[in-house]
């Protein structure tokens, strides 16, 4: 069933029929499966617990690290998006409710306009955060003794960059009409685009392309620098490769999807839309999982109740800076800082 929008002004009702070609039980199963991994699996529980650990439970440990300060903003954005995702997917994947609820959604959608603004704003935030995270890892290798001070000095401006810059992509959505259209046996929100060329998909394609460029460039330089270091850290190379490869795969898929959404919308089907949703889930759910797996200190603070001082001794690399000498010393000390396993 092909839906065609036919209105003359923003106050007209958008009447649509629910698509009965979808099997209700299969669609409900899709909804249950997606919500089952969104809430406990990553976007809700893990992002919340990481945010709580970084900002409250062990703030003295993590808020001194610019990487974890920036990463905590990603946790916040992902946690915020879960509410929008659950609401949207509930009405999208439950066909029995469509005939009952759809008459209440024929008019202009103020609430779902807010939902769309939050979701699109949050997506752009995540692309900026990804660029900053990989750039932070590169500067960690380039300036091992000064990168923390360099980043913390500019942290306020970075917060503005992360949360304020995406507002430049929201304006066309704010002034446009948001309506509902049938999708997957239910219905989903769409907007009319007051300014035809200013598509959200094109804005997001720009930011995701920048994030992908930073990911590949910074990762390549970082890995090359680690390999050429006299005392290279093999574990760091391995975990960096795994984490960045994971992120890169997700962003490559998203970049491809956004390219089609931006320039060839007439070629798209519901399957493309579903792949795009799952690609975001792939990044959002997997990001906290990867971070916990590769970061020993974070894994310890999230899942263990004993104080860090009671743990077994471990080897860490400590950078010691003096006025005339900068050297790396491998010391055996009690676990008290960040380490990568």
Automatic annotation (TrEMBL):
Classification via InterPro entries: 7TM_GPCR_serpentine_rcpt_Srg (IPR000609), Nematode_SR-like (IPR051119)
Cell compartments where the protein resides: Membrane
TM spans (from-to): 35-56, 62-83, 90-107, 127-145, 157-180, 203-222, 243-266, 272-294
Broad class of where this protein is predominantly found: membrane
Gene Ontology MF terms: transmembrane signaling receptor activity
Record's keyword terms, sorted: Membrane, Transmembrane, Transmembrane helix
Native source species: Caenorhabditis remanei (Caenorhabditis vulgaris)
Pfam families registered for this protein in UniProt: Srg (PF02118)
Sequence similarity: Belongs to the nematode receptor-like protein srg family.
Keyword Cell inner membrane found: no
Lineage: superkingdom: Eukaryota
GO CC list: membrane
GO biological processes: sensory perception of chemical stimulus
Protein name from the UniProt record: Serpentine receptor class gamma
Membrane topology category: Multi-pass membrane protein
């Amino acid at each position: 069933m092909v839906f065609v929008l036919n209105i003359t002004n923003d106050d007209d009702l958008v009447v649509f029929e629910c698509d009965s070609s979808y099997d209700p039980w299969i669609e409900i199963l899709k909804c249950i499966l997606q919500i089952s991994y969104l809430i406990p699996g990553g976007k809700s529980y893990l992002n919340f617990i990481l945010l709580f650990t970084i900002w409250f439970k062990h703030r003295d440990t993590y808020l001194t690290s610019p990487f974890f300060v920036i990463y905590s903003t990603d946790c916040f954005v992902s946690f915020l998006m879960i509410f929008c995702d659950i609401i949207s997917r509930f009405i999208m994947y439950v066909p029995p409710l469509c005939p009952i609820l759809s008459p209440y959604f024929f008019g202009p959608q103020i609430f779902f306009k807010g939902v769309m603004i939050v979701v699109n704003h949050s997506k752009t935030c995540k692309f900026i955060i990804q660029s900053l995270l990989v750039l932070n890892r590169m500067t960690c290798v380039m300036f091992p003794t000064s990168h923390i001070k360099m980043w913390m000095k500019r942290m306020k401006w970075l917060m503005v960059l992360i949360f304020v810059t995406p507002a430049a992509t929201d304006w066309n959505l704010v002034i446009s009409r948001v309506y509902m259209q049938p999708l997957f046996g239910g219905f989903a929100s769409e907007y009319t685009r007051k300014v035809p060329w200013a598509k959200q998909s094109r804005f997001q394609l720009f930011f995701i392309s920048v994030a992908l460029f930073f990911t590949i460039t910074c990762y390549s330089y970082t890995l090359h620098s680690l390999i050429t270091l006299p005392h290279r850290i093999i574990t760091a190379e391995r975990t960096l490769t795994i984490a960045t490869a994971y992120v890169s795969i997700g962003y490559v898929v998203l970049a491809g999807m956004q390219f089609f959404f931006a320039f060839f919308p007439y070629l798209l089907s519901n399957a493309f839309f579903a792949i795009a949703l799952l690609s975001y889930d792939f990044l959002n759910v997997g990001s906290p999982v990867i971070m916990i797996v590769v970061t020993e200190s974070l894994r310890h603070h999230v899942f263990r109740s004993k104080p860090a001082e009671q743990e077994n001794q471990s080897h860490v690399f400590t950078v010691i800076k003096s006025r005339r000498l900068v050297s790396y010393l491998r010391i055996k000390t009690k676990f008290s800082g960040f380490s990568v396993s």
